[in-house]
Design goal:
CATH class of the largest domain: Alpha Beta
Distance between the termini: 15 Å
Shape: globular
Number of helices: 17
Largest sheet: 9 strands, mixed
CATH topology of the largest domain: Rossmann fold
Oligomer: single chain
Structural class: alpha/beta
Strand order of the largest sheet: 3-4-5-2-1-6-7-10-11
CATH architecture of the largest domain: 3-Layer(aba) Sandwich
Length: 490
């Protein structure tokens, strides 16, 4: 099949979160399976240009209709770790992607509406006719709308769209100016409840809803989150729309790239290891302690790696730090935060505990350092309020680091409690809790730390089981291929 991925991120050139990892990892897997895969991305000025090879102009003049005129674009081509990528570079005073940031601008919806239209215009003008266009999140939600309402009448009637939603919380709500800008016009048509009108605000259009309504198949990034989005508040107001289109809704669990996250070959850790050489993991543990000036003794290290926002359970992360140092463990945190009040909260925690010989708080993000934390920790926490998939628990398991997670979203599909899961004992790979409170996470941490101290042989067996899991892109890649093949023949 010929597949074009259209997304606002792709690791490692433009990465904010897990979306980038998915686009990069899935594209590589689909290519390995013999498909022709290309990726269309914005040409940000803050990309990792050192990760793009043979960057050249592919298409020098691409006029994209916009309002009553057109914005000319240059389209660049480059290889990103073997992946064929095209970058849309608008030449206008709006400077849509020359802001030294990926997101967070007042006109984000306009920026990515333009990107969606430019991606289709590029396909049209260069005679690209993929079997499937794979779109991601609200940033590309208007692409299937534009395809069905405009571009199918100009020679793109056979293209099919798979729409993957990574996070329902962000939906791209806007007014009717987006219709005039993109040429969709007809506000009376699109403000219909069955079309793009937001389910709760009659004066707003919803890009994410548009993607759901117009795509041939819609999936979330785990099976359990697909259920949650239809039957709980985690659909963030789109439950009715999802149920109206339930015949084309599914869930596919994300994978991780084992060329990047693999202790057997990881160049960012001082000691590589496998299940047969787990002693080297403890050498990484000592290297981590040395890096953060932690006390060297027999205590387990509990860590958190990732974004710091309300979705991630910030109160439980803070509570774990205090619980660890007061209950025979050590705590390490590496996290980024865009919300000032949350940043201040963790800065206060850092000031409270960073003189403690059993704790280190690192505010900021260093991907190289995150490898050492995964390799050197004994446990990692993922106490999320909601988690469409989660990659941290999958990465941790590959490094023999036991996940302690709240049972939500993709965490339900990937972590099975050692004591209480109904799967066979040889498939149990971590600890889970249900209630979003201190007692909930303490119940799981107490069992994990207790096993570490009282039954070290059993804890090592749990590590080996976790490391044996296959969370590569092999299985989800096959699922996506099946979906693409299905909608191609509809």
């Amino acid at each position: 099949m010929y597949i074009i991925e259209v997304a606002s991120e792709c690791a490692p050139v433009s990465k904010v979160g897990g979306l980038a990892d998915v686009v990069g990892g899935l594209s590589a897997e689909l290519s390995l399976r013999g498909n022709a895969v290309e990726i269309i991305l914005p040409f940000y000025d803050c990309m990792r240009y050192d990760q793009i090879f043979n960057l050249t102009v592919s298409y020098n003049y691409l006029p994209v209709p916009w309002f009553d005129g057109a914005i000319p674009c240059v389209v660049w081509f480059g290889l990103v770790h073997g992946r064929r990528c095209f970058f849309i570079d608008p030449q206008s005073k709006d400077n849509f992607f020359r802001r030294n940031t990926f997101y967070g601008c007042d006109d984000d919806i306009m920026r990515f509406a333009f990107f969606s239209k430019a991606a289709l215009e590029f396909m049209l003008q260069t005679n690209r006719r993929p079997d499937v266009i794979h779109c991601h999140d609200w940033q590309t939600g208007l692409l299937p709308v534009l395809l069905f309402e405009i571009y199918k009448f100009h020679g793109m009637e056979n293209q099919r769209v798979c729409y993957t939603i990574h996070n329902f919380k962000h939906q791209g709500k806007c007014g009717n100016e987006i219709l005039a800008a993109t040429g969709l016009n007809r506000p009376e048509y699109y403000f219909d409840y069955q079309q793009l009108r937001d389910n709760h605000d009659p004066f707003a259009l919803n890009c994410l809803k548009g993607g759901i309504v117009y795509s041939n198949f819609v999936n979330t990034v785990s099976m359990h989150h697909a259920w949650e989005s239809r039957f709980t508040d985690y659909g963030f107001g789109l439950v009715h729309t999802l149920n109206m289109h339930q015949h084309k809704i599914g869930g596919i669990l994300n994978g991780i790239d084992y060329n990047t996250w693999n202790p057997e070959i990881d160049r960012f850790i001082p000691f590589q290891y496998t299940t047969a050489t787990l002693e080297n993991k403890y050498k990484n543990k000592e290297a981590l302690r040395k890096r953060f000036w932690l006390y060297h003794d027999a205590r387990p290290i509990i860590s958190y790696v990732g974004r710091l926002d309300n979705q991630k359970g910030i109160d439980l992360i803070c509570h774990t730090a205090h619980y660890a140092v007061n209950n025979g463990a050590q705590f390490v945190l590496l996290g980024t935060c865009s919300d000032h009040s949350i940043y201040e909260k963790f800065l206060s925690l850092k000031n409270q505990l960073n003189d403690n010989i059993h704790c280190h708080i690192e505010l900021g993000f260093d991907e190289d350092l995150s490898h050492l934390i995964y390799a050197g920790s004994d446990m990692v926490i993922v106490p999320s309020a909601f988690e469409p998939c989660g990659l941290s628990q999958m990465i941790a398991m590959k490094y023999g680091t036991i996940p302690v997670v709240r049972s939500t979203g993709g965490l339900v599909n990937s972590v099975f409690d050692r004591d209480y899961s109904d799967v066979p004992w040889y498939e149990r790979n971590g600890y889970t809790f249900t209630h979003m409170d201190n007692c909930g996470i303490e119940s799981a941490l107490k069992r994990a730390v207790g096993l570490y101290y009282d039954y070290p042989g059993h804890f090592r067996s749990l590590m080996e089981i976790a490391m044996s899991y296959d969370f590569s892109w092999n299985i989800p890649g096959k699922h996506y291929e099946n979906v693409f093949d299905f909608i191609k023949h509809k």
